[in-house]
Design a protein that fits this description.
Shape: rod-shaped
Low-confidence stretches: none
Mean pLDDT: 87
Number of helices: 15
Radius of gyration: 36 Å
Structural class: alpha+beta
Distance between the termini: 87 Å
Largest sheet: 6 strands, mixed
Helix content: 55-70%
C-alpha cells in the first residue's frame, strides 16, 4: 500500500513537471512542424495547438476520455487547418509530430521522477489513445470544412463566369474579380466552350486560363488557343479584352453549336465557320431555301437527292469522286445530277443556284442534328 501511495505521489510530481513544460513543448512542436512541412510555412499556428496539447494533458491527468469542450477545440483545429489550406496528410503529420515530442519528454520526466514501467506504460497508452481519438475528430472536421470550401469556391467561380459572360459585372468590380480568379485584368482572352468535362481536360485548360463547369461541359477563358486531344472539340471566340468577354463567349457558343451540328472536332474558331453560323441563324430562310431546292421531289425520293447533292458538293462537284464515296457508277451520279436540275429548275453550274443548294443541305444537316439531340 505504501509503495502504491509513493508511486502515486511520484506520478503527481511527474504530471506537474510535465504541465509546467506544456507551453514550451507546444512551441517546440510547432517550430518542428513548420521547419519540416512546407505546408505550414508562413501560417499562424494559433492558440488552438496549445489548447489541444492542454486538452491532451488534462485527459491524461484525470484519466478520462475526450470531453465535449475538448471535442470542440479539436474540431476547430481541424477546420482551421482546412481553411488555411493545409492538406489533411500534413495536418495528421503535425499532430503526430507534436504528440511524439510530448511523449518523448514524458519518458524523460518519468525516468527523472522514477515512475515505474507499468505505470508509465499505462500513461503512454492513454496518451496514444487520446491522440488517435483526437486525430479522428480533427480529421473529420477537416474533411467536412474542405468540402464546404470546395463547394463555396465552385459556386463563387460559377457566379464569376456567369457574371463575366452575361456582362453583369460592373467595370469597377471587373478588375478585382478577375485578379481574384487568377486573370490579368488588362489581358486579352479567348472565350471557349467544350463538351469535355473530365479531370484531365479541366486540368489542361486551367493551366492556361480560367475554366469552370457549364451546361454539362466546360467553359471559360484562355490566354492562347488551347491544345485539343484527338476526337475532342473546343470552340473559341475571338481574342478580346475582359470587358468584351460576353462578345467572345457568344461567338464561342455559336461556333460550339455549329461544330456539334456539323460533327466537327479539334479547335474550331468562330472565324472557321462564319457561313455555317449564318445558316444556323437564318433558320426560317433555310427552310424556305430547302423547299425551293427539294420541294418538287416526293418524300420518297427527296432523301436520295439530298444525299447525292451533299456528296457532289462535298467533293467539289467531281462526279467520279462523289460516285466513289457513295459506291455508285459515275454515270449514275451524273444521271441523278441531271434529274435534279430538270426537276428543280436549278443549274449547279450557276453560282447562285449552287449556293442555294449548299445552304439547303447545311440547313438540313443542322435540323437533323437538333432532332437527334432531342431523342
Amino acid at each position: 500500500m505504501q509503495a502504491d501511495e509513493a508511486e502515486q505521489k511520484r506520478v503527481g510530481v511527474f504530471l506537474r513537471a510535465l504541465e509546467a513544460e506544456l507551453d514550451q513543448l507546444a512551441r517546440e512542436g510547432q517550430n518542428a512542424v513548420v521547419a519540416e512541412k512546407t505546408e505550414f510555412a508562413d501560417l499562424e499556428m494559433g492558440d488552438l495547438t496549445r489548447a489541444a496539447v492542454g486538452a491532451a494533458f488534462a485527459a491524461l491527468r484525470e484519466r478520462r476520455d475526450i470531453d465535449t469542450e475538448e471535442r470542440r477545440v479539436l474540431a476547430d483545429l481541424g477546420a482551421l487547418r482546412a481553411r488555411q489550406g493545409v492538406p489533411l496528410h500534413a495536418m495528421v503529420y503535425g499532430f503526430r509530430r507534436i504528440a511524439v515530442l510530448v511523449m518523448e519528454r514524458s519518458r524523460m520526466l518519468a525516468d527523472r521522477h522514477r515512475i515505474g514501467a507499468e505505470t508509465m506504460y499505462e500513461l503512454l497508452s492513454r496518451q496514444w489513445a487520446w491522440v488517435i481519438d483526437a486525430l479522428s475528430i480533427a480529421s473529420e472536421e477537416h474533411r467536412k470544412t474542405e468540402l464546404e470550401l470546395i463547394h463555396d469556391r465552385q459556386e463563387k467561380r460559377a457566379a464569376f463566369l456567369h457574371g463575366l459572360f452575361s456582362g453583369t459585372i460592373g467595370a469597377g468590380d471587373l478588375q478585382a474579380a478577375a485578379a481574384e480568379h487568377g486573370l490579368d485584368p488588362q489581358g486579352t482572352y479567348f472565350a471557349f466552350r467544350t463538351a469535355a468535362n473530365d479531370s484531365g481536360s479541366r486540368r489542361r485548360l486551367a493551366q492556361t486560363g480560367f475554366v469552370e463547369s457549364y451546361e454539362g461541359g466546360l467553359a471559360g477563358l484562355q490566354a492562347r488557343p488551347p491544345q485539343v486531344h484527338a476526337g475532342d472539340l473546343i470552340a473559341i471566340g475571338t481574342m478580346l479584352p475582359l470587358s468584351a468577354a460576353p462578345v467572345s463567349f457568344t461567338q464561342a457558343t455559336t461556333a460550339f453549336t455549329v461544330a456539334q451540328a456539323f460533327e466537327l472536332t479539334g479547335l474550331v474558331s468562330i472565324t472557321d465557320v462564319p457561313v455555317q453560323a449564318a445558316v444556323m441563324a437564318e433558320r426560317e430562310m433555310g427552310a424556305f431555301v430547302t423547299e425551293r431546292c427539294f420541294g418538287a421531289f416526293s418524300d420518297q425520293h427527296r432523301p436520295l437527292y439530298q444525299q447525292t447533292l451533299a456528296a457532289y458538293l462535298t467533293h467539289d462537284m467531281n462526279a467520279k469522286a462523289a460516285a466513289d464515296a457513295l459506291h455508285l457508277h459515275p454515270n449514275t451520279m451524273r444521271y441523278r445530277i441531271r434529274r435534279f436540275e430538270e426537276t428543280s429548275a436549278l443549274r449547279l453550274d450557276r453560282v447562285d443556284d449552287m449556293v442555294a443548294v449548299w445552304w439547303a443541305l447545311q440547313h438540313l444537316r443542322i435540323a437533323g442534328h437538333q432532332r437527334r439531340s432531342l431523342d
